[in-house]
Amino acid sequence: MKKVYLLAVLLFQFTYASYAQDQAFIQNIQTLLDLRTPNDFYRTHIVHEFTYNDPHLYNGIDFLKNMINDDVIKFVNGLGLSEYDPATPLTNAFLNIRYMINDKSQPNFDIHWKTAGQTNDFMLLENKYYLPLGFMVNENISGYVHDDNPFMSQNNLFRRATGFDADLFAVTELTDSDITEKDEGRGLAMWDYKVPSAGLIYTYFKNDGDSTHVNVYLNNELKYFVNISPEHKVGFRPIGYFQQDDIISIVTKVDVSSYLGLFNEELFEQGYYKLASQPLVLTEFTNNNIKGHVVALEDGLLYTSIPAKNWNVYVDSVEKEMVLIDGAMAAVRLNKGYREVEFRYINNLDNDQTKINFFNSNFVIGIVTGIAISLVLFGVIAFIVIRARNKRKKSA
Description:
Helix content is about 20%, strand content about 40%. It is of the alpha+beta class. A 5-stranded antiparallel sheet has the order 8-9-14-11-12, with no helix packed on it. It has a 5-stranded antiparallel sheet with strand order 16-17-23-19-20, with no helix packed on it. A 4-stranded mixed sheet has the order 1-3-5-4.
């Protein structure tokens, strides 16, 4: 009975090995969740591999769904988020991520987070650049379409949302002409990258062949390595802060596509403060209804991280046309001034047996039928990770 209860608490019907037996783990996570700001809507991301099925918990709501809107998955993947790696500050902002729970054995080097609490094993981090569920953006975001390369997606989304004519990432592709050493026998190559200015650097690797490793060296010392498997062909992640003229060396197979991106911190802060200046202030949120108001400084779009499927939107009590961002996220055009906005969920899947789980501070679960505000996003990410890991387990 205890095992069944723990499995229910942690949402997913898989084997949990040691953590399924460890009440201390539950208490650790619950202690941190209790430290979050109450009575508000936001998301909390659990990173690093505590178990095969770490729940993505946000304040009050989580869900398990075996059929997810594919457009939402493409939107999320397009930003480079497909595993349990820290996301970029832009991704966190656009997905309403306010908190992150991290294993203390995994050091947090990202200055965009501050410590909000800790237990013996875990840390609760709060996003210093958090954006709410909705905020005003430039009209040009309506034309955003994700790219296969997440660096391009990040730059495009930032440009369109803020209206700034500048790239968030300075991207360098490592080509054959940049190879500094080559091992023909093993099909390996090394590329050197001289850091142009101090800052946070991300990498993106794409592998269309068999499993391979990518080793990242800083001034000839191993700093990071990642395995790219046939099931998980891409890798997009931060590798740390570097100083100007540092030499980053990448060693992997010749046919792996490799990119490095230097994050423009100053530009991001300018964009963040612009987007944060016109938030959607929530006045009510239930399982199938979201109400709030916004003061639009000029005509534009109210972007939300609500997957748009089965939602209708009303502005000042009048139904308006939903604008889809990348075919996935809900937005609506607003004229300048004070506007009251309401999103209503319409359940068109009467026979759907999706279970939505509502968590109180004691991990007590209630289950209802239907899909509603729980589709506001992190089950999608959990689904992506579980699907990938199940494939790996079957192939093992």
